[in-house]
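---------- Forwarded message ----------

FYI, see the tRNA(Ile)-lysidine synthase record below. Original note from H. follows.
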Amino acid sequence: MTPSRPSARQAQPGPIDQALQRWHPALPLAVAFSGGADSTALLLACWQRWPQQVAAIHVHHGLQAAADDFAAFCQHFCAQRGIALHTVHCNARPARGQSPEDAARQARYAALAQGAHALAATLGQPIASIALAQHADDQVETLLLALSRGAGLPGLAAMPAHWQRPDCPHLHWHRPLLQVPGAALRQWLRAQGQDWLEDPSNANPAFTRNRIRRQVLPALERAFPAFRSTFARSSAHAAQAQTLLEEIALQDWQAAGQRPAIAALQALSPARQANVLRYWLASVGATAQAAQLRELQKQIAACTTRGHRIRLKVGQGYVLRQGDALIWLQSNQPHQSNS
Ligand SMILES: Nc1ncnc2c1ncn2[C@@H]1O[C@H](COP(=O)(O)OP(=O)(O)OP(=O)(O)O)[C@@H](O)[C@H]1O
């Protein structure tokens, strides 16, 4: 961890101010504050704009060596300005089959929701919005990572600027800096005379994201100077198309039944059938790999007699035929076939 020193004290208007002027979150607002450059810039800018209405939540990742330094930096920053801060301790351990990054992300969102709940008691009113500091470069990295995995539309849609979660329906989640380049945030902090902490893992080339940041983004900058906004436009198109696919999937699922009827699935075009199968499987917490989905569709097409059985591994369980419909059961759940 290296404290970065400010180089100038002169404030200058720039993309961060414009981003905040375009943004109208419900207040009070809590900023997810790591102590890194991006969230330090976001918290400082929000606090300057809504001085009495901004709080902060820090997630203390106990497993990282530098975690105490980050927590101490956040405490000091907030105490200097009278910003209410809540620190949540969280040790994310990946479940079987889950990546460490995904485990950390899920645990962070749960911790932030918990932090918002705790802050409500301190402030005497509920937190209405939580803001995260991902910026335009993070968005491009997310899109490139999705492309490198061969992701479908949900991956290409990258990160939404606003969303809500079913586990805390009254809370609005925002990413107000998605159109601001990362370098502009650091430049703004320097102009404000504000330092921040550098996460040592950001320099580790073992992480694909870091290699994209250091090698691919500079090359894109040279070849396509407008890549941040054009890539973001493509992601927005993907997000809109994905919304439409989900609406169609929901209609088809409602028509096919909670446990989708095989005959109803057979009546759909292959693309539409794959769409509703993915949607149904996601609703039970299973993600079908492309090959599993292809095999499932093959078996649905072949299922023309009473005695035809379907049993196919998908996610942490199995898709099975039960009567005239499909069910999904977790691997350890007992099942009696009556097909
Ligand atoms: N330990 C944490 N506590 C609270 N919020 C966090 C924490 N880590 C990340 N966040 C929030 O999630 C956002 C995305 O996290 P990520 O680790 O990708 O960010 P980053 O690029 O390192 O940003 P930052 O420079 O703010 O740390 C951060 O900008 C911040 O708003």
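H. also flagged this: The pocket of adenosine-5'-triphosphate is lined by residues 32-34, 36-39, 57-59, 61, 132-134, 138, 199 (CB under 6 Å).
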